[in-house]
Amino acid sequence: MVAAHARFARERLPAREVDARIAWYKRRVLRSDAIKKGIDRAPARAMLKATGLNDADLERPLIAIANTWTDATPCNLHLRELAAKVKEGVRAAGGTPIEFNTVVVSDGISMGTEGMRASLVSREVIADSIELAVRGAMCDGVVALSGCDKTIPGTLMALARLDVPGLMLYGGTIMPGNFRGKAVTIQDVFEAVGACGGQFTANTMSMAGEMLGLSAMGLNDVPAVDVRKGAAAVRAGEIVMRLVAEDLRPSQILTRAAFDNAITAVAATAGSTNAVLHLMAIAREAGVALTLDDFDLIAAKTPTLTDLVPGGRFMAADLDRAGGVRLVARRLLEAGLLKESLTVSGRSITVEVKNAEETAGQQVVRPLDKPISATGGFAIVRGSLAPEGGVVKLAGHTRRKHTGPARVFDCEEACFAAVQKREIKPGDVVVIRYEGPKGGPGMREMLGVTGALVGQKLDDSVVLLTDGRFSGATHGFMVGHVAPEAQVGGPIAFVRDGDSITLDVDARRLDVAADLESRKPGWKPPGPRYKTGVMAKYAAAVSSSATGAVTSPVST
Fold this sequence. Notes:
Mean pLDDT: 92
Structural class: alpha/beta
Distance between the termini: 44 Å
Shape: globular
Radius of gyration: 24 Å
Largest sheet: 8 strands, mixed
């Protein structure tokens, strides 16, 4: 730990170089000059000085510190302290930081309640609010701080959309708890009754940020409470100033190769299926064409190389000790699966990972000749029940095919109640519908239901399908993101109890043996759950989960 902390510290710019850079900034026309330079901007300067800035500060680039701090969840609780360290790095490298905050919805806390409908909606609001704040202040660069699940894709979407020099810093994984000598996470609690230290959504998307090149390799790996995290935050502040000086923008980093690398890493680590939804949304903001078929093709040729929770034995903090994301990426490079793409370091990712250090005796990242599985941790299925596609999670089990009778529920609560009453039997195919992007609205995650099924030891004998989502902590034979969703008249809306449903992973098929067309006459979707406010706006604007469940009109 001390050595890594020292490495971050040694990368700081010498004072002479900082002075030279500040002088260069004064000669250059900055984006922020439009708001703070010239006689006619005196009122703006007066207001900025009222915040504590001086003339010297206003000569420098303005760097947005886009924070997602909240004391409503442990995942983001420490981000104020990290923001202070980022500011330290920005100032040391010749910039002037200005901080603002956005909203946060905790998936783990809201899970299984009406509040969970706000989670995916918050991804869009986070991206929108960062965009508005940065555009309004005409900032020259951005460091976005993230923690809980949707803050990571929300910040990455904003960086892609704004296309100003910037990077994302993840607050770091939580450390696992200990119960009777066993390391435990939030997953264990849900399974006992029904962010998380495993390869759940937050850690999956943190890794994706590094593989995309919008997070500096190694900084996200450091756990939240690790002594190295402050130095990592300082380093992020220094990096953004180099990005501004070089005018290195997300559009130069977010190439198709970068997205392929991120998908490959998610597949190799059996990461959260939510990454499919989020990477498609980020790609849409970046103007990069990406489809569900691309995910399936990459996962099919990528071995699962990490033994991480929820399907495996180790936590995200164990991966950091083993060698981190850099080690995973080096394995992919050795396998010929890593593509050349630029990162915020200014170097190619293939150069970044060559100096990966592997801890002797580590068991988290497997050698290429001893993978957990020959293929990645997810697959895309289509068929009469999912013409646009669905995402099946393959980690933590070996099941490939199942046929059984449908047990249909029109909301998560009804299904959870049935599970609690032990009405679900081995062999059943549990269908939860009207939980999609529009129908929910917001695609709630079904961790309460899946956890309860695991708790009743039904995870090896049932299948669960939904037009909603699954938590990154979910494991079992599950298909989420079934599209088109029930609310828009997708096939899932017309399934009835007892219909025979077949999930065949090898054939990439999800089919129902029923004449669904004969059931369509007279069907009407349920009325909107929300008629006003942000939820109503979201339901009206959101796209299919097959295209990322986005609200932006950006086209590719």
